[in-house]
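> forwarded from #structure-qc
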């Protein structure tokens, strides 16, 4: 076992720097590259008894680093997409609030008039879109809950909500400040 440890240490010392440089070409961060290479060497150590003595160690290391980098980059891309979607929703909300304030008309309507207007506009939405919008905004359900309940994808729920928001924003642009005040 002591000879395996020495062999592992020799491999680590010999290849760590090259593997880190290779990983940095793809993940761009030295810290992330070091973590990836460390993970590969931990895997190598844990599999030392199963690895063939005649295997091409350099090919194994580069392939392992490549695969870890691919996993890392895929994870980063997914995380970025989620962040972008959240940012888009936030920007949409800000734009909606800005437009609402800019279009704010001092004329006062009764709460019944505003509710009637909102109901009329919601009723003009396509049936599935209206159902999803009501479940989300009136019943307060999350997109995943709605998707499960209606046996559709979360992406379909998101798309239908986008359609509903566009229709409502267009139809209520002059009344939105009052709506927010009266119904909020």
């Amino acid at each position: 076992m002591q000879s395996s440890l020495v062999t592992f240490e020799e491999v680590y010392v010999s290849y760590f720097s090259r593997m880190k440089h290779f990983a940095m070409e793809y993940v761009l961060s030295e810290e992330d590259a070091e973590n990836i290479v460390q993970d590969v060497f931990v895997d190598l150590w844990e599999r030392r008894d199963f690895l063939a003595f005649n295997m091409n160690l350099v090919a194994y290391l580069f392939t392992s680093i490549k695969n870890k980098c691919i996993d890392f980059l895929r994870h980063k891309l997914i995380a970025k997409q989620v962040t972008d979607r959240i940012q888009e929703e936030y920007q949409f909300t800000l734009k909606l609030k800005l437009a609402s304030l800019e279009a704010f008309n001092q004329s006062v309507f009764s709460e019944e008039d505003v509710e009637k207007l909102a109901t009329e506009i919601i009723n003009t939405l396509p049936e599935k879109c209206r159902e999803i919008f009501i479940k989300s905004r009136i019943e307060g359900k999350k997109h995943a809950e709605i998707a499960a309940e209606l046996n559709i994808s979360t992406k379909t729920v998101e798309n239908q909500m986008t359609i509903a928001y566009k229709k409502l924003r267009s139809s209520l642009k002059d009344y939105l400040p009052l709506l927010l005040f009266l119904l909020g």
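QC bot note: Helices lie at 2-27, 30-46, 57-103, 111-123, 127-138, 143-150, 154-172, 176-183. Residues 17 and 37 are 9 Å apart (CA to CA).
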